From TrEMBL:
Pfam families, per database record: Amidase (PF01425), DUF8016 (PF26053)
Keywords: Signal
Ranges for domain Amidase: 194-354
Domain (Scytalone dehydratase-like protein Arp1 N-terminal) ranges: 57-149
Classification via InterPro entries: Amidase_dom, Arp1_N, AS_sf
Region (Disordered): 435-457
Protein name stated in the entry: Amidase domain-containing protein
Protein's organism: Verticillium dahliae
Signal sequence segment: 1-17
Composition bias, Polar residues: 440-449
């Protein structure tokens, strides 16, 4: 019987279920939050049982002040946080863990309107940045707070959370009330301080769904691909460079299938096209970096999106959604672990609202292959050419020509209408003699048209 009992215990042990913590979601003063599954250490040594504190799933909201400040300066500090951060709110002031407190006792105070606070000495061994957290009252361990937002523009394919070391990702398991929208979580900006080594510290990044991210699957804009292929074992170099510079990836973003150009809604079959927020909110977002463009144009809580440009996949979405974006030179960074469309033309790049973040991200991604002119004197081209602009007697012509004239005045340049036929005739390659360009018009793209006696190519 004893032998049988031992065998039974061995069988039970080998068949034990695996339970993995994926975080939890809570609601604090009508704002939804996600409690990260990664412990940041202990703010308090041992259980923290104060019956008057709000709690859910054993968690209570707290504020950590990691700098040794006088209590008299806390009110001004918290007032600054309300304008600096979209995650922290006064409800986190129910308990304040303050560094440098000499006495171990709890004291009561009020630092924001009607919020009553308990001030507690911060564990002297804690290495926590200031900001909002959720404290496990049974262990004293703290977890970062992520504010949850609805992806109402339909820009994302998957919401993700990045491991503290930036070497692994997992789906963010939370959902807030929304109509057919994913939920995206963003960490507090208070956790991060930009440095020379971490110029992107805390910058929130969306990634086009063609780049590998370690630990999760990608779709390349195709449901079958997502279902058939396993999770990536390594993050693409272009994205890892941003993470190493302090960037925080918050999710995968929609691309048209396999990064080909598509127009909504006829071409978008596996996933609905994102919504361009400009105009009436139903304009074409362009492609293939459609999710990247729609997200940055729609959400102030997102700082930057990584797209790719082969034949206009960054320039198109940037142009129609009022963003900064360009096609960089080819070969600036490795495209290993990225779905190829045309290896001789594929380039990684950004869609942004803020040119300073654009500059910092470009330097982080392209490293030694990038030269920043952010601090130098701007140099603009002095020769500006227009092609196919309508006459100023039309409403569209007035807008375009007025803009071009103001641009020329701003850069101190000269505005000239390009005569495409003359330019072609003066520079035609030897192998293309006899071919003429089509005359440009507002509705006709400029292409080459062979003459009747030209040999077919």
């Amino acid at each position: 019987m004893r032998s049988f009992a031992l065998l039974s215990l061995g069988f039970i042990a080998s068949a034990a279920a695996q339970l993995v913590q994926t975080g939890a979601s809570v609601k604090l003063n009508d704002v939804y939050y996600y409690v990260s599954p990664y412990s940041q250490g202990k703010a308090y040594d041992g259980p923290f049982n104060v019956k008057s504190l709000p709690r859910a799933f054993g968690f209570t909201p707290i504020t950590v002040v990691a700098d040794e400040l006088e209590k008299e300066s806390l009110e001004g500090l918290f007032g600054n946080w309300t304008t600096k951060d979209d995650v922290w709110q006064p409800a986190f002031l129910s308990t304040i863990f303050l560094a440098g407190q000499k006495t171990p006792c709890l004291t009561k105070a009020s630092y924001h309107e009607d919020v009553s606070s308990i001030v507690v000495p911060l564990n002297k061994d804690a290495k926590l940045p200031s900001g909002p957290y959720f404290l496990d009252t049974s262990s004293g361990e703290v977890y970062q707070a992520f504010r949850l937002y609805a992806d109402f523009a339909g820009a994302f394919t998957e919401s993700l959370i990045q491991a503290p070391k930036g070497d692994l990702f997992q789906p963010l398991s939370a959902q807030i009330p929304a109509s057919a929208s994913l939920t995206i979580g963003v960490p507090s900006r208070l956790y991060f301080t930009k440095t020379a080594e971490k110029p992107l510290a805390g910058v929130r990044i969306g990634v086009k769904d063609i780049y590998d991210l370690a630990g999760v699957k990608k779709s390349n804009g195709n449901r079958a691909w997502y279902g058939l292929y396993p999770a990536a074992g390594k993050t693409a170099t272009a994205i890892q460079n941003l993470i190493d510079a302090g960037g925080i990836v918050v999710g995968y973003q929609k691309t048209s299938q396999f990064a080909n150009g598509e127009s909504p809604t006829a071409d978008w079959v596996d996933y609905h096209a994102p919504f361009n927020p400009r105009g009436d909110g139903y304009n074409n977002p362009s492609s293939s970096s459609a999710g990247a463009g729609a997200s940055v144009a729609s959400y102030q809580w997102l700082d930057i999106a990584v797209g790719s440009d082969t034949g206009g996949s960054i320039r198109g979405p940037a142009g129609v959604q009022g963003l900064f974006g360009n096609r960089p030179s080819h070969g600036l960074v490795s495209l290993a672990n990225v779905m190829p469309l045309s290896p001789t033309l594929d380039t990684p790049g950004f869609l942004v609202r803020d040119p300073e973040i654009w500059d910092a991200a470009s330097k982080a991604m392209y490293q030694g292959n990038y030269t920043s002119f952010a601090r130098g004197k701007a140099k603009y081209p002095t020769k500006l050419l227009t092609l196919g602009f309508p006459a100023s007697t039309t409403p569209a012509g007035r807008i375009l020509n007025d803009f071009a004239a103001k641009l020329a005045s701003h850069v101190g340049g000269k505005l000239t209408a390009l005569d495409l036929n003359a330019a072609w005739s003066s520079s035609v390659p030897a192998g293309a003699k006899g071919a003429l360009p089509l005359s440009a018009s507002p509705s006709t793209p400029t292409t080459l048209r062979p003459t009747a006696d030209a040999a077919p190519s």
